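Posting this for the archive.
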Amino acid sequence: MTLKGSCHCGGTQFEVSKAPASVTRCTCSYCSKSGALWAYYKPAQFRLTSPAEKVATYRWGSRTVKHHFCAGCGGTTYSESPDWSTGKPDFDNMKIGVNGWLLHDFDLAAVPVTIIDGKNLW
C-alpha cells in the first residue's frame, strides 16, 4: 500500500511503501522545534517524487543527519540518517525519517507514539 505525502505548498512530494505502524517524537532541539512525528523507513521504501531542487537541507551539530525541508514553504519533510540503535551511527544501515504529519489519507492518531529523549541523548 503506497502512501503519498507532501509539504504544505506541494513543492516537495514523496511516497512510502507502507503505512507506519508507529511514529517517534524526539525531544532534541531540532525535532521539538519542527514538531515532526517521524515514521522510519529503509531507503528502498521511500521515493522523492518531486524535483530534488525543491528540497533544501539542514545539517546540525555532527552533520550526520540530513534534515530536509521544502525550499518553498519551509515545511520539515524527511531526514536521512544512519541507524543509531546501538548508540553509535551505523552508516551501513541508513534510514529515512518521514514527517508523519505530511502523509495523505493517513490517520496519524491511530498509531502509537514512541518518545525518545534526544534532548539528553545527543
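The two ends are 34 Å apart (CA to CA). The chain has a mean pLDDT of 92.
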